[in-house]
């Protein structure tokens, strides 16, 4: 650079910086700002649009600039020149950096596509930045008296012309044309080239939400749900109604996610979320005392209630011997052996069941091949808690011979077995000496009532045929059994029609109930199955 320039003939160098920033937290829109005061900020819908607009705007500035000026001072210091940063500077013992070479227009792009900068500087300082590209070089100084005949491209404003406003970029800039006197703007590194998807990601239910998941509304919903669940966990007070709403949203979002990706585990997670929502609502109802749901139930949630009804239906459909006593034994042994096809039973357990001849009922199941014992039936009846009998029910084994066909975990199996034992052995039923059929009817009504104890999902009653199939009796016998249960104060009010049992459970019985979800109606106990009397 000529010494005359350093002697006071230099003019201030020009610098343009265009930045790309998020328009707000959690938004995909971006804001583009330019360092020129005349340029107003611009908001665009996506980062890809923002990068395209920012690059075009910088090109427009370069076109308007008319190329570098040979009398311009080097702007490297203002731009944070690496060469000056490494030099000793004034008062330092190290070498002092000196600018040199022709004045150039250098352009530097952030590898991540967040900002673009162009500035007038000397060739030496431009070379210090490996990623910088020189797009134009000022012509050499003309001899004294010579006329500068450097051609000016048509349509390009003269030196010092103002840059175009964001609200009205020049046609050349919008079309992505190259700046005057140079090639084209340097592109970001290969990894960042082209349109970039905003890398917004998150985590929910121990799963990472991919930043490129489409549709974006699904991705955003999953991320927001993850944040909402974490916020709920850190809250000082529980909000069960709000938690139920979060689980309902999660169920819908995971169902859509499964549809998009074809991942079956996501659909299973959606079903678990639906059950969690129902459980949270039930707990909310218990806490607030809405209706009769304020009672504390022996089985605490919809998932366990569904399993209870499923075991009743399984005993109905797979009992190998007719009659209510055999049905009751099949039900109880199914609950004892549900996890792996085997379980422990003592003689005291069997004697607590309302059986007229326990040995005969057990032997009939052994003869039918349904029940497998390590010894004789007499040995089972004589066993105590210190030496229980390990019984086997092979039909409860899945094809792999390990997993139970009912899908019950150990904790759920134990809870269901305790619920059935307590319901069948309820104090008043024992005192009235109700037979096996009456106790099975009591169990069926408790398992198919509404939240406030009305029979049926919404108090529409239970079908007589369905109840008879669950209890292994004839439909005509239901009336007599209902009278026995009424005398035992099992019902608060009850009536029989030609097809249905109407009424509700007494307040004393409500803790044993398993509310049926609204909308299932009497179908919850429908079907005669193969186990009818």
From TrEMBL:
Ranges where the record places region Disordered: 170-206
UniProt superkingdom: Bacteria
Biased composition (Low complexity): 170-196
Feature: compositional bias, Basic residues: 197-206
Name recorded for this polypeptide: Uncharacterized protein
Species of the source: Streptomyces alfalfae
